Amino acid sequence: MSVVGARPNFMKVAPIIAAIDKHNEELPAQVSAQGGRDAPEPVNHVLVHTGQHYDQAMSCSFFADLGLPKPEVHLGVGSGSHASQTAEIVKRFEPVLLEVKPDVLVVVGDVNSTLACALVAAKVSIDEPGARPLVAHVEAGLRSFDRTMPEEINRVLTDQLSDLLFITERSGWRNLVREGVASEKLHFVGNTMIDSLLAYRERAEKSSILEDLGLSVPKNGSCVCTKPYALLTLHRPANVDTRWALLDIIQGVIDLTRKYTVVFPAHPRTRKRVREYGLEAYFGPNGSNRELDRSDAVGDSGAIRMIEPVGYVDFLCLMKNAALVVTDSGGIQEETTCLGIPCVTVRENTERPVTLEMGTNILAGVTQQGIREAICRQLLSKPTGTVPELWDGESARRIVDVLICEVERRRARLARASATHFEQLDHRTVSQQHPSFRPGN
Ligand code: UD1
Ligand code: UDP
Q1: Distance 332 CA to ligand 2 centre (A)
Q2: Average predicted confidence (pLDDT) for the chain
Q3: 169 plus 90 within the same structural domain
Q4: Fewer CB atoms inside 10 Å of the end CB: C or N, the chain?
Q5: Residues 32, 117 share a domain
Q6: Could you give the number of structural domains in the chain?
Q7: Three-state SS string across the chain, please?
Q8: Closest ligand to Cα 86
Q9: Does the predicted TM-score (pTM) go above 0.85?
Q10: pLDDT (mean) for 219-246
Q11: Would 17 be classed as within a structural domain?
């Protein structure tokens, strides 16, 4: 069973489901090669959507884009405070687990859905005391060391609850060992978000988003950028949930609009805040700009071009062709690293240090001055990043191989334990009937 809930979960889970499908497709050949002996079994997979994100643009569109199957279970939790959202997921997820009884629960990333479902699985007893699924955390060990971030709390707790921890970069391994997690539980497998990026990179070439935004024109069967643009995303509560913080960031970015169109697919949290804080003026006459209107698409000098969040393939296309990405997203730091696109991260820290060490990412902090300087630096320098170790499109296959192996090992262990138990019971029954009988006689 795997769980999705919020936007960054879909692209992390999709490759795992694809790898399971591939494993199942390849089974008949393996079974006949092994003459049926010790042949692996097919993996049944159940997808659960908690409903943490629910808008077409934050959830549904990703199912179409990433070829995800319709979730077998939808918990429909929706938005709420951290406590109420987490509690609601916990409450609604437990009966699902008790009914489906999976061997493994896979959770990804660091959102509330991740922690809530891991917590249920780590404490549940299915049919008998202590019988529960293995909990596998994909993207384990990342640490910003900033406990004011709700995600950091979700990461630390999910890792402590997990039996199998799948790591995307070496810092994750070090962090987990330092926190006392046994190294037998750790698997450095690479990054499933990058599996998705590599799988959909070519499809992104065919996206019409640049044309729709008036940033390119078709020429000889492909699109040619007519105007350099930068891509902006912001949604961290620390950056957008107070007026002064959001305003300072906007002022740090606004100079960019002199030379570049700044395309801003705004997260619903941020869009709401822009309205609430009366900051629409920074987003031009079409502050709410719901429609992609070609007539005003180019030449937004002085204003940031705010649009609805875009689908996965369109967003890949926007990242690939951008002169610069400015963001506070976790995943986008990794994707720009892989694409070799300069990235300015509007945060004081990152839980993904490999994007700074090897990639094209720099930390700008959250002040307008810091952001301005970081943008200038990135625009002046040529990106020289390299793609981190094991970000090669094979991470999900590695994960599925480990999961199959671990489930088989656990089944074998349980079978041995139960055989020993029955043997002891047999001996006890016999010795009760024949007091002179002792095991080993
Ligand atoms: C969540 C994750 C964050 C992740 C982000 C990805 C947690 C604690 N946070 O933050 O780590 O980076 O998703 O996008 O899990 N809303 C809508 N429609 C939706 C979803 C949300 O309008 O489909 C609005 C609601 O007003 C909601 C607000 O956005 O209250 C915040 O949503 P929530 O899921 O609580 O947190 P995110 O900021 O999206
Ligand atoms: N993304 C998208 N459309 C958008 C913005 C982001 O498809 O309008 C994708 C992006 O490519 C990445 C993921 O969403 O794969 C990142 O999600 P987000 O920034 O919401 O979450 P975070 O990574 O910060 O947890």
Answers
A1: 6
A2: 92
A3: yes
A4: C
A5: yes
A6: 2
A7: CEEECCHHHHHHHHHHHHHHHHHHHHHHHHHHHCCCCCCCCCCCCCEEECCCCCCHHHHHHHHHHHCCCCCCEECCCCCCCHHHHHHHHHHHHHHHHHHHCCCEEEEECCCHHHHHHHHHHHHCCCCCCCCCCEEEEEEECCCCCCCCCHHHHHHHHHHHHCCEEEECCHHHHHHHHHCCCCHHHEEECCCHHHHHHHHHHHHHHCCCHHHHCCCEEEECCEEEECCCEEEEECCCHHHHCCHHHHHHHHHHHHHHHHCCEEEEECCHHHHHHHHHCCCHHHHCCCCCCCCCCHHHCCCCCCCCEEECCCCHHHHHHHHHHCCEEEECCHHHHHHHHHHCCCEEECCCCCCCCHHHHCCCEEECCCCHHHHHHHHHHHHHCCCCCCCCCCCCCCHHHHHHHHHHHHHHHHHHHHHHHHHHHHHHHHHHHHHHHCCCCCCCC
A8: 1
A9: yes
A10: 89
A11: yes
> CATH no. for residue 104?
3.40.50.2000
Asked whether residue 347 is domain-assigned, the answer is yes
Domain that holds residue 285: 208-380
Cα 129 to averaged position of ligand 2 atoms, centre (Å) = 40
Average pLDDT over residues 101-111: 98
- Which amino acids bring their CB within 6 angstroms of ligand 2? 7-8, 11, 193, 233, 235, 265, 309-310, 312, 315, 329-332, 335
| Mutation to probe ligand 2, out of 4, 146, 332 (largest number of atoms < 8 A from CB) | 332
pLDDT given for residue 434 in this prediction = 56
